[in-house]
Amino acid sequence: MAKHMKNLAEFLKNYSCHSHISNDLAIRSCRCLDGLPEAFCSDLVYIALVSDLPDSLPLSEAVNLLLIGDKELPRSYGMENKINWIVCDPRLVTLPKLINLTEEFFFEELTLYQYKEEMIRALDDPDAMKKMLEVTFKYVGNPLRVIDSAHNPVVSCWGEEQLDEPQWMEYKENQTFSQKYNDICNADYAFQRHMLNSPTPYIMNYPEIYKHRQRILRIRQSHMNIAFVSELEYNRPFTEFSSEILQIFTHFAGIRLCNDGHFYCSYDSPLSEIFLYVLKTQQPNPEKIRQLMKKSGLHFKKYIYLIYITDNDLFDSREKMVYICTLLNKFFIGGLTQMFEGKTVILMDSDQCTRSPLDDDRLQNFLQILSSNHLFAGVSRAFLDLSQAGHALEQAKKAFEFSRQKKGLGQLFYYEDYILEDLAETYLLQNPPVHIVEPGIHDLIEYDRLHSTALMESLTCYLEHQLDLHTASDCLHIHFNTLKYRIQKIKDITGLDLNKIDIIIRVRLSLIILKAIE
């Protein structure tokens, strides 16, 4: 940010300055006026006593003077438009002190230049946001943190010491603001207006919950809020200089984050607030959920479903992400669509507990949207309470992940189809497979090995197709009677009665576990 003569006058305002600035020229440095130079440089400030000046100056271009008024300034200096002057009270400042003050004024400009150079280098760091905040902390000297527009933590920096600010420590631990903080912010209309309309920092002073003031500034890209940076007035008082540092940081942070799928425009509606609270909190408070639902006017039918939309990786640009979210929001009218962790998450409700919350026609249209935009979707089981949305999100994610493991075809996957796979995977995390695999299955594996048969393959296909001999035989490309004979042979070898539901479930789990440990 370039320095100007009016900036210098403001900087020296405590020294009873009088000024005459016809041309607010940009200035880069200062020099003592020791005799009259042959020519003046218009981007320098010349420091002198008024008594050292001649009655008039030989001018070829504009000149900037910083003076100590030890005598009255000649009248010609006030009438010449090419002369910009600032006169300080000699009772308040000496010439050496004025020189030091002016050097300090220009030092800030040099420091800002150095800071920008370090930020440019930090942009190329693999962990750029962390590095940029560390650089900023070095210049600002106060604790800093960045959160995204949905209030998820991004990065923080306050050095080695334990931070004595309970609200910041609670947020770091729980990754969510306290209810007291939310209530106070919601009641602070000046803060709400400022964050919507102003690009400048806002100083939040809430002594009832904060030990220190904090300064907050939004990070924007393409006219959207994508994140916020906060500074705590902890080690040093807030200054205009540190405010400039923060504004430069937001510029570089915006460049770094503009194509990162984790950062997006949050509309901060009551619906978004409740959805994000439930998804982010491991154990949501039921009473808080009820309060937020009442505030938002949100009501669900008997059953709720969660749909997880992904492109198999983070969206490659925020523009695509916002486009997809907007498209799906229009398609799922009556549902709740939200970006979360760089993905799209949708809540839908239904009067009936079915595999899919969409009827046939809408399901086909949804599949077309997924296919044409190269997207995939996982669908949770039906659940009854919004507080279970976090678990439902895990189910929807697992539906997609299990489909990838099995090389499933299509764009849409249901957790209903992978419940046994999830049970088996969870079991294997803490138990050896020998305790759950049916002993008779090992006999079948050995029989296949000795006789070069494919009875295990036939059994797996038979169970995957719900004991439907016709469908399974078509899948195996064998005759119906051939498969019927093989199933009887399997019963004889294993001693398992495949007409009993509990045995069928145990065998199915056994096959899934054996597949998982291959």
UniProtKB/TrEMBL annotation:
Q: Which domain of life is it from?
A: Bacteria
Q: Where is the PucR C-terminal helix-turn-helix domain?
A: 455-512
Signal sequence residues? none
Which Pfam family name is an example for this entry?
A: HTH_30
Spell out the protein name for this chain. Answer: PucR C-terminal helix-turn-helix domain-containing protein
Provide the taxonomic classification.
Bacteria, Bacillati, Bacillota, Clostridia, Lachnospirales
The record, for InterPro entries, names: CdaR-like_regulators, PucR_C-HTH_dom, PucR_C-HTH_sf
